Prior knowledge:
This protein is mainly β.
Amino acid sequence: LVQLVESGGGSVQAGGSLRLSCVVSGYSDCLAWFRQAPGNEREGVAAFYVAAGEMFYAASVEGRFTMSRDSATNTLYLEMNKVKREDSGMYFCAADGPCGSWGATWIEEDWHFWGQGTQVTVSS
């Protein structure tokens, strides 16, 4: 069983930065951030293959978002830079999904544990 609690969402202007946090209770070899805008499907943003310390990013955020992990507190972070309006949505932390050194797949049904989400709103 893995429990996930996100925080750090809020309102930010386009071009600005925001850092999301996810406290992870329990162990999972794969952790990820997803987001969902109203009317859209949940989409993968970034994934972390813990065993190898490898991180993977969706093309839409590559170069702007950075994921990191504090192993002492078992907290996963998502640093969002140069945000755009299309980055708005509910951001979810997920665990126990398909990932490895080959990358990750971000099909919602394949990830077994979810946090409650934190809302990010980007204004122009």
